[in-house]
Amino acid sequence: VSYTTGKDKIIFVTKEDHETPSSAELVADDPDDPYEEQGLILPNGDINWNCPCLGGMASGPCGEQFKSAFSCFHYSTEEIKGSDCVDQFRAMQECMQKYPDLYPQEDENEEKEEKSSKDLEATPVEDSVAKEEKGSS
């Protein structure tokens, strides 16, 4: 039995599963493995979609839209890099909005709201200080 929460996959293993010998093969640092410790961009310039640094973005329900937008940006030759990729990024954003549990966007909004409320709180104080200074001169 397995289920996914966020980026983590939780797998329940039975006693029998543990007693069965594993069929997984461990290969000691294969120098020909193109995904081994390569980072985001492979030596040939291609994007390494298996890079852990992408946090699974390339494989979720919006993986194709993410790959399309990211590829477009990566290979963009425009003076303002990625300026020719607006449609792809819009498609990715629209897809992600359909899956708020997988792609939470509250953080940005909460920060903006906190900043704007702090700005609003600070403004009256500054105004009243300025008025007092004007009045006392």
From TrEMBL:
Gene Ontology cellular component list: mitochondrial intermembrane space
One Gene Ontology biological process: mitochondrial respiratory chain complex assembly
One of the record's GO molecular function terms: protein-disulfide reductase activity
Full protein name: MIA40 protein
Primary location recorded for the protein, binned into one broad class: mitochondrion
Keywords: Disulfide bond, Mitochondrion, Oxidoreductase, Protein transport, Redox-active center, Translocation, Transport
Gene that this sequence comes from: Chchd4
Biased composition range(s): Basic and acidic residues: 112-121, 128-137
Locations listed in the record: Mitochondrion intermembrane space
Ranges where the CHCH domain occurs: 62-98
InterPro entries: CHCH, CHCHD4
Disordered: annotated segments: 18-38, 100-137
Amino acid composition bias (Acidic residues), ranges on this chain: 27-36
